[in-house]
Write a structure and sequence with these properties.
Layout lengths: L1 E7 L6 H12 L4 E7 L6 H11 L3 E6 L5 H9 L6 E4 L11 H9 L4 E6 L7 H18 L10 E4 H9 L7 H8 L3 E6 L13 H15 L2 H30 L6 H34 L6 E4 L5
Parallel strand pairs: 1-2, 1-4, 2-3, 5-7
Antiparallel strand pairs: 3-8, 4-6, 5-6
Helix pairs in contact: 5-8, 9-10
Length: 304
């Protein structure tokens, strides 16, 4: 059996047609399709319930509120029963016609089949720069190169089991897949333009995801504070020697503006370092509270 996990948030406009389209490609297999309603405020859950009534292979999970896509993916893979799991979006930007190719790679023995975008599609210059900056920093600090990657992938049941065993509350799903390892291959695909509504991600949610991704898989930012301290220590020694030499040779010491600028620079660096430390402390605080990643308010009855 193959499982398909699809998160959905406020997708009432096109969800029914899109899921029907995906099912056309899955009907040749023994499959289950799990839709996770991430606390939608529209009729997304009603559509999921209708799809389940029409097709018992489709199951639904509904969150009590909006927890975020990363947690919707975790909820979906925690429920799967298939030997392999296909993860994709509900808006058909992840073309279902690549499902056969993913399954063929899995049959060849690959446990992770990662679909890589050939081009990022139409997006603003700001979003393109932000994405490149995010993936560049992530690669620099963690060693994981996720550029042009996404959540369109196939995971073997062994991979899913290992991911389900990870109990951290702050989740970056793509990073977890990369971290667990296993035999992996990549296939390229042409990302389609999003149908229906616009993307639910905004700059705030993307920034939050970036912070979670970087801090969850690297402590390098903390070592950056030590590097800054060393740099300023060296500068302090150099300026101290210069001041003593000027005093000995009798030159008048001026530079009130320079002193103010140095204080502002040092103050900014100190506050920046405290901010970095604060981010990690906040993550520790969230982890030790032990709250669940998400809360499920209801599910559709079991099909298969």
């Amino acid at each position: 059996m193959f499982s398909v996990v699809i998160p959905a948030y406020n997708e009432e406009k096109c969800l029914y047609e899109h899921i029907k389209e995906i099912c056309k490609y899955m009907n040749k297999y023994d499959y289950e399709l799990i839709l996770v309603d991430d606390g939608s405020k529209d009729k997304t859950w009603e559509i999921i319930s209708q799809l389940h009534e029409e097709n018992s292979s489709i199951r639904g999970i509904r969150f009590s509120r909006n927890f975020g896509k990363e947690y919707a993916l975790c909820a979906g893979v925690a429920e799967v029963k298939g030997d392999a799991v296909i993860i994709m979006d509900s808006d058909l930007q992840h073309p279902p016609e690549y499902i056969d190719s993913m399954i063929e790679k899995w049959k060849e023995g690959y446990q992770i089949v990662d679909c890589i975008k050939e081009v990022r599609g139409k997006e603003s210059l700001k979003n393109r720069i932000s994405a490149n900056l995010f993936y560049g920093i992530l690669h620099k600090f963690t060693g994981y190169n996720l550029k042009n990657g996404g959540d369109f992938k196939l995971l073997d049941k062994k991979v899913v089991d290992e991911i389900n065993n990870l109990k951290e509350s702050q989740v970056f799903f793509r990073g977890l897949v990369e971290w667990v390892g296993f035999r992996k291959c990549q296939i390229s695909y042409q990302m389609k333009e999003r149908e229906g509504d616009t993307s639910k991600f905004n700059m705030k949610s993307l920034f939050k995801l970036a912070m979670t991704a970087i801090t969850s898989f690297s402590s390098s930012l903390l070592y950056l504070t030590i590097l800054l301290a060393i740099i300023f220590l060296v500068l302090a020694i150099v300026l101290g020697i210069q001041t003593i030499v000027n005093k000995i040779i009798g030159h008048a010491l001026t530079g009130f503006t320079t002193v103010i600028l140095l204080q502002l620079l040092i103050g900014a660096c100190v506050l920046g370092c405290l901010g970095i430390i604060g981010i990690y402390i906040a993550k520790i605080y969230d982890e030790v509270k032990g709250r669940p990643r998400y809360i499920i308010s209801e599910k559709t009855p079991l099909g298969k």
